[in-house]
Write a structure and sequence with these properties.
heterodimer, A: three-stranded mixed sheet, 11 helices, globular, B: 208 residues, mainly alpha, 7 helices, 45% helix
Chain lengths: 271, 208
């Protein structure tokens, strides 16, 4: 609402300066995108991933022929409701801070008897390749929809992960001198026409973090937060961020805690 | 020394010690983060692990963000050092072909592990800057460059400035978000000349 009003007033002002033709062109582009976004929100194919994930959660799999139903995602064994809102967190059994994806790997190993390599083998789906991880992530995330982010970050290892994640966020390097902060450190910026959230500011961090995982229309896939970070670093010209690596979890801790108090609203749907 | 003097000195020492420990803590944290990153990334395609190693500009600029503005003396040190590293064209000509420059400004490929290193990199100027009127899909991380030459004057000095800025932005504005396209070998000399033409040629759509 506020945004619409602001956009309207900006357009109004610019119009007064007599740049009517340019405005019409710009506005029609923006309107087209708005229409596209509205059409997208009508139905979210992520529901298919959520349903498949729920079935996988309950299915007996692996050498131990066990389901994941006793997996402790942080709120106690088997509790899925609200689990995404408290992750990442410290787990005493592994003595590590884990996000959802790394915790699922832990449970696949401990409950189902997979090797860590097997559990991490296919982290992201692609054309013609549907992987269990995406579906499980979509299911668990969907069970936190409408709840508020509530990451504790109070255990010493959680605090350490937060500080390291913050350091990595502001760390500039590579051929282009880019860091996360290059695109996500200031308010109201765009890359091309894509709005960029300021992940150091509470309202933006809440909205952005609360929107992942997401069904990406352009890719026809549900993408996890681990995927989001992996692809950001690719565009940052860094080497490849490894799935559930310590740096990926530390960065997730920083971003998730910045989103505390925000309503989690994912899996969402994006362009 | 009277009591007041002693108290003042003691306070100054305490503040200095506090600063020292704060910096030590921060550099410890950075060292720890680098170690963590070295085990969390793997080389892929053209992107090797040495991309995590920071040069002086990257290391210094990573410390200043949000409320912590770059101190003037630090900024001047960076700008001076980076200015000395710019290599201007030996032929003294800064203007290439703006049509080629427009293609470079549009192209977002280059240096990602998913890119073919045999192909030339783009500059991806439109990701962050407004340039021509025709391209409405532009970003706002950098300032608008619409009418760049028209506003600043089509002078040789301005051509040289534009060349230097694209070659090494840190020489003019320390800790700028803009990549150092020439310094880091992202764009060739000819490509930078083409981009300069896009900005500075009176016939370029940037100025029309």
């Amino acid at each position: 609402m506020k945004r619409t009003r602001r956009t309207a007033s900006v357009l109004c002002l610019l119009g007064a300066f007599g740049a009517a033709a340019a405005i019409a062109q710009q506005r029609s582009a923006v309107e087209e995108i708005e229409r596209y976004r509205a059409a997208l929100s009508d139905g979210n194919p992520a529901e298919l991933w959520e349903a498949r994930g729920e079935a996988l959660w309950k299915e007996k799999r692996g050498p131990k022929n066990a389901s994941l139903e006793r997996c402790d995602l942080g709120l106690g064994p088997g509790i899925v409701k609200g689990a995404y809102t408290v992750l990442p967190r410290y787990f005493a059994d592994t003595d590590k801070v884990e996000d959802l994806e790394s915790r699922l790997v832990t449970c696949m190993v401990s409950l189902q008897g997979l090797t860590p390599e097997q559990a991490k083998k296919d982290p992201f789906g692609g054309p013609g390749k549907k992987v269990p991880m995406d579906a499980l992530v979509a299911y668990v995330a969907s069970e936190s929809r409408g709840m508020k982010m509530n990451v504790a970050a109070s255990h010493p290892k959680e605090r350490e992960a937060y500080e390291l994640g913050k350091t990595i966020f502001f760390y500039r390097g590579g051929t282009h001198d880019f860091g996360c902060v290059t695109c996500h450190g200031a308010d109201a910026k765009r890359i091309r026409l894509q709005d960029l959230p300021n992940l150091t500011a509470t309202a933006d961090a809440q909205r952005a973090y609360g929107g992942w995982p997401a069904y990406r229309v352009s890719q026809g896939e549900v993408r996890s937060f681990q995927w989001r970070l992996n692809d950001c670093f690719r565009q940052q010209r860094f080497p490849e961020l490894e799935f559930v690596s310590p740096a990926s979890i530390a960065l997730t801790m920083y971003l998730a805690k910045n989103a505390n108090g925000g309503v989690f609203d994912a899996p969402s749907i994006k362009r | 020394m009277n009591t007041a003097q002693f108290a003042a000195i003691a306070a100054a020492v305490a503040v200095l010690a506090g600063c020292a420990s704060m910096f030590a803590e921060r550099s410890d944290l950075t060292a720890q983060a680098v170690t963590m990153m070295k085990t969390s990334f793997k080389e892929q395609g053209q992107a090797k692990l040495d991309r995590i190693d920071q040069d002086d500009v990257q290391r210094t600029c990573s410390q200043y963000h949000g409320d912590a503005a770059v101190p003037r003396d630090v900024a001047e040190r960076i700008e001076k050092a980076e200015a000395a590293r710019i290599s201007y064209p030996a032929d003294g000509k800064y203007l290439g072909d703006w049509k080629s420059g427009e293609k470079i400004a549009q192209a977002g490929v280059g240096m990602q592990y998913s890119d073919d290193p045999a192909q030339p990199s783009g500059g991806n100027c439109y990701a962050c800057h407004e340039l021509t009127q025709a391209e409405v899909s532009y970003g706002t991380i950098g300032p608008s460059l619409r009418n760049f030459g028209k506003v600043r004057g089509f002078t040789p000095e301005m051509q040289k400035y534009a060349y230097g800025k694209v070659f090494n932005s840190e020489a003019f504005f320390a800790c700028s978000n803009m990549p150092r396209f020439g310094q880091k070998g992202i764009l060739t000399e000819q490509q930078i000349k083409d981009v300069v033409a896009l900005l500075m040629d009176p016939q370029s759509p940037v100025n029309r």
